[in-house]
Amino acid sequence: QVQLVESGGGLVQAGGSMRLSCTASGRTVSPYAMGWFRQAPGKEREFVSAIRRSGSTQYADSVKGRFTISRDSAKNTVHLQMNSLKPEDSALYYCAARQSPIVAVDTQRYDYWGQGTQVTVSS
Asked: d(Cα 82, Cα 20) in Å, to the nearest integer?
């Protein structure tokens, strides 16, 4: 079993920045991929970004150029640096982890999910 704990959410003004962190525990082996998803009221949960064990990254078109995902393998932690935030970025952000390899990391079929951290961007 893998436990995921997110931190760093809160309230920020449009144009500002925020850094989210997610730490995985419960296993000594790093997951194949760790990703970030978000869900706003009345909308479906959507893929934001992911990073593979190899270090390769992927971003949703809506955040490309503004968000950066990174990892600290020694600490089994993934970060999401969010810059130039927009009101439409407001959502509950979830960290997720997948243990087994998969071709597409933007799938929703991850094995473990965090509790979510709220990000609210005011206009």
From this structure: 8
